[in-house]
DNA sequence: ATGAAAGCGCTAACAG
DNA sequence: CTGTTAGCGCTTTCAT
């Protein structure tokens, strides 16, 4: 049953029912009695306004799209959870899309979402987009907020970590412990976040006046295979690093796998700082020193920006940057004397 | 620009544009020339049929709802990812809802989704629903598929693990190694899946003719705190179990935390079998023996059932059960001699 | 305080 | 092969 049938049933106008059910009774000064009658009947017959009809009329779908590279990655699942929770309380639904870290899929997905007339778009991008798509994105029909990383060439609002200083924090921690030779397990060296983190590591080297030659890095994508390959390369280097920083959230998995294969011990043979705190980081042997992102705060900010763009038509595109926190645990010690 | 404006622009009827753009050109035998002209213009002006209008007309939104207890739990995030991927290829979008393991939230969310006139509902339930909601769910306006666990009182299609034999497998593995005293870290003992897993464990005890008194269990919810409390209780028992099975996916986190606090060593002091394979299960020290669910196959089945219900109006509600796989690793050994 | 009616953008039935 | 048109369910302006 829909609201006009309900209206018939009650002998009132559709508009009255509509006003009551969409919470505008007061605004239109519907009588207490009518309100009660309508609500009661609506309850009884399980009547709710069809969002399709309402959406069509209002020109809004009540849905925002959320595009993540990998919902399986705990950073993104935490983000998704927090974003959905907050948006829900504003009556907005979240459409989930997973690009599987693949730029082409991402492009296809963005095209789809753009066509779906969503109310807004939250994008955690992987790659760069085609010029055609980029142009559409630049003149969006809906507010866009990027998280985690910017989409190259797009100046939309962005919520991200201060990656550079996060990288610096990680490296400084190791350098302070006396490590001289460090390895970085990079994610996608083409991504801005990866570059920034690495740049931060280099900053630390400069600050400590250590020869940048002592810093080696490997990596090429966020895939498990690539992480493993990179880890192997790092651990097979002529002069093996005494400390490794995994710059991408998933990198630690590849590293741990490889460390095991090489029969190395953390931290005796190798100190490790891992990007992204995970639920299991404190629980493994040894507990991992990590760089944690303030996921919840970031989610809050994303939603806040989005809602602001939804409600006002100001065209400002803020870049909000959050500080990472180094959580010191036992995967880092001073290097063994030779 | 919408399709009727496009039609004007081209001097053709809206219906023609509609037919071309919704892929029915062939069916209506639109001329090659017109098709080309329309497609080209649509491309040029970025015109896609508004799904709100189309949906309203067709009576379908093109969206299915996915309700999970915790997207942060890797079982559910893998499930969500696989489901979204498959549904996407049928042009269906996925609305994500996270009930945070809370029955009340779940109820509220289900009410919302029911009202949203989604095309279908995929539910991984937490608790039991109010009788009122249950009745709505029983006469659903859309196909419903449950995953992981049934919603008590609802006979909709279900895709789940063969929990009983999974529990049995886990216990048998421990019992075969010579363990006599086992502990179960349960999730929510009110949930059917938890009960089945536990029943499976009891089956194994019976099969091995071991006194059921040697089987103790603790737990009350899926929360981290409860897991820790349960783990503490288990490890503080008068006669400490030599082996523990974590029946819920998150339980292992609480157990590991507690094992660490108690300064116990796995597997020397305690053998462990953990439900749900996680990306890090093989990588920690010691690598965990786990019970793995065939997530991808389960996702495939969910989507298959849903699409079948979407396309035909057969009212069959299959219960599909999948076999768990025990992945043997080093967290289980024979118990120390006393 | 409420009703009547227009129209959001689309598809499908019907017409030719 | 293509056009015309009704109407999906709703909100909102206008009218009273």
Secondary-structure map:
The structure is a homodimer of 338-residue chains.
Chain A: H1 3-10, H2 14-21, H3 32-44, H4 51-58, E1 63-68, H5 74-88, E2 93-98, H6 103-115, E3 120-123, H7 131-138, E4 144-147, E5 157-161, H8 163-176, E6 182-185, H9 192-207, E7 215-218, H10 224-236, E8 243-246, H11 251-261, E9 271-275, E10 289-292, H12 295-311, E11 319-322, E12 325-327
Parallel strand pairs in A: 1-2, 1-3, 3-4, 4-5, 5-11, 6-7, 6-8, 8-9, 9-10
Antiparallel strand pairs in A: 10-12
Helix pairs in contact in A: 1-2, 1-3, 5-12, 8-9, 10-11
Chain A binds a DNA duplex (16 and 16 nucleotides) through residues 2-4, 12-16, 18-19, 22, 24, 28-31, 34, 49-59.
Name the features.
338 residues, homodimer, 12 strands, Rossmann fold, 6-stranded parallel β-sheet, alpha/beta, 3 domains, 6-stranded mixed β-sheet, 434 Repressor (Amino-terminal Domain), DNA-binding
């Amino acid at each position: 049953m829909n609201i006009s049938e309900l209206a018939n049933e009650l002998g009132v106008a559709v508009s009255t029912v509509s006003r009551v059910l969409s919470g505008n009774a007061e605004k239109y000064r519907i009588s207490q009695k009518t309100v009660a009658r309508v609500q009661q009947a609506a309850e009884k017959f399980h009547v709710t306004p069809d969002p399709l009809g309402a959406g069509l009329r209002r020109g809004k779908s009540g849905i925002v799209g959320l595009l993540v590279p990998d919902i399986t990655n705990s950073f993104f699942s935490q983000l998704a959870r927090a974003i959905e929770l907050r948006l829900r309380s504003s009556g907005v639904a979240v459409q989930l899309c997973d690009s599987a870290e693949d730029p082409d899929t991402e492009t296809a997905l963005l095209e789809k979402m753009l066509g779906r007339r969503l109310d807004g778009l939250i994008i955690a991008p992987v790659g760069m987009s085609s010029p055609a798509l980029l142009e559409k994105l630049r003149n969006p029909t809906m507010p866009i907020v990027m998280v985690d990383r910017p989409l190259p060439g797009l100046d939309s609002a962005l919520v991200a970590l201060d990656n550079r200083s996060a990288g610096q924090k990680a490296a400084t921690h190791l350098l302070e412990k006396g490590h001289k030779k460090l390895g970085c397990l990079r994610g996608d060296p083409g991504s801005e976040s990866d570059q920034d983190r690495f740049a931060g590591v280099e900053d630390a080297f400069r600050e400590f006046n250590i020869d940048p030659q002592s810093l080696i890095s490997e990596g090429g994508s966020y895939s498990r295979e690539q992480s493993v390959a990179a880890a192997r390369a790092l651990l097979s280097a002529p002069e093996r690093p005494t400390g490794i920083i995994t710059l991408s959230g998933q990198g630690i998995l590849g590293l741990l796998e490889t460390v095991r294969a090489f029969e190395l011990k953390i931290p005796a043979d190798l100190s490790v700082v891992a990007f992204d705190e995970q639920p299991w980081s404190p629980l493994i042997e040894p507990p991992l020193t990590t760089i944690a992102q303030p996921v919840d705060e970031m989610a809050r900010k994303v939603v806040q920006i989005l809602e602001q763009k939804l409600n006002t038509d100001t065209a400002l595109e803020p870049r909000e940057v959050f500080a990472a926190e180094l959580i010191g645990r036992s995967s880092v010690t001073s290097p063994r004397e030779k």
